[in-house]
Amino acid sequence: MTQSIADRAWARYTGRERWTRLGIFAVMALVTSWSLASINIIWPWVWDAPAQISDLAGRMIPPDFSSIRAIMWALIETLNIATIATFISIFVSLPVAYISAQNTTPNQATLWLGRFILVSSRSVNTLIWALLFVAIFGPGVLAGIIAIMFRSLGFLGKLLGEAIEEIDRRPVEALEATGASRAKVILYAIVPQVVPTFFAVSILRWDINLRESTVLGLVGAGGIGVILQGSIDTLDWRTVATILLAIIGLVVAGEAIAAWLRKKVI
Predict the structure, then answer these.
(1) Is residue 261 classed exposed, middle or buried when 0-12, 13-18 and 19+ CB atoms within 10 A define those classes?
(2) Within a 10 A sphere around the Cβ of 71, how many other Cβ atoms?
(3) Residue 14 — very low, low, confident or very high, per pLDDT cuts 50/70/90?
(4) Residue 152: which of 97, 77, 205 has the closest Cα?
(5) Is the pTM of this model over 0.85?
(6) What is the Cα–Cα distance from 62 to 172, expressed in whole angstroms?
(7) How many CB atoms lie within 10 A of CB 240?
(8) What gap in Å lies between CA 215 and CA 72, rounded to an integer?
(9) Distance between terminal CA atoms of the chain?
(10) Is the dihedral of CA 237, 239, 242, 244 positive or negative?
């Protein structure tokens, strides 16, 4: 017997949709269970974590400021790593962004070359780049700067390339119609349209690099991470607390400077 319209109850999903959603949730639960079972988690340590956190916090209080001069110098070094690497990577990323944009690349070979560079840069984490360059150039600031620079190249080139692809073609075509050289087309038709994106992306990357520079020292690539690793190795938890406070202060200051720059420049 056919159900009358008055007897029908409203439902957000049909029976088929509900079974589909239930199946998706079941698959997700199975995948999550398999993931947890496949990794080696020492569960007694997990259950003991709250007590360990409490004990570690007790060892860190009060922070030891006797090494504050060395910590401040390491902060300056960290700031220099982020700033120098960002400055260099901005200029290196410009030609890569130009050849990786479909509307400005000279040919297919340069397009794929540019995209290969961008993908290669973004595929490798900063710490892995740092490990590689520490092995090549030895421990120190230089390895950290090059590692940050290699990682930033892909980020900056990708976003600037997308900005170039979204430009208005009419100014470009107008200049080309007058017989302007390629350099003048770039300077007067393309650059003015991507300048806001250029500054926004550069400031954002400097902010990111400042945070990433704080951990480079864990693999010997300079910065405040070096003395952080040394303090952890010697179980000097009160100095570790001071270093963590200094890192938080640096990141907050960097965030404020980046916000101020965005407001003034963009």
Answers:
(1) middle
(2) 20
(3) confident
(4) 205
(5) no
(6) 63
(7) 22
(8) 16
(9) 69
(10) negative
**56, amino acid identity:** L
DSSP structure string for the chain? -PPPGGGPPP-SS-HHHHHHHHHHHHHHHHHHHHHHHHS---HHHHHTHHHHHHHHHHHH-S---TTHHHHHHHHHHHHHHHHHHHHHHHHHHHHHHHHHSTTT-SSHHHHHHHHHHHHHHHHS-HHHHHHHHHHHH-SSHHHHHHHHHHHHHHHHHHHHHHHHHTS-HHHHHHHHHTT--HHHHIIIIIHHHHHHHHHHHHHHHHHHHHHHHTTGGGGTSSSHHHHHHHHHHTT-HHHHHHHHHHHHHHHHHHHHHHHHHHHHH-
Please state, in angstroms and rounded to a whole number, the distance separating the CA atoms of residues 247 and 79. Answer: 11
Hey, what amino acid is at 114? G
Residues belonging to the chain: 266
Tens-place pLDDT, residues 211-240 = 888 888 888 888 888 899 889 999 999 999
Contacts 24+ apart (CB under 8 A), 58-62: 59/237, 59/238, 60/237, 60/238, 60/240, 60/241, 61/238, 61/241, 62/238, 62/241
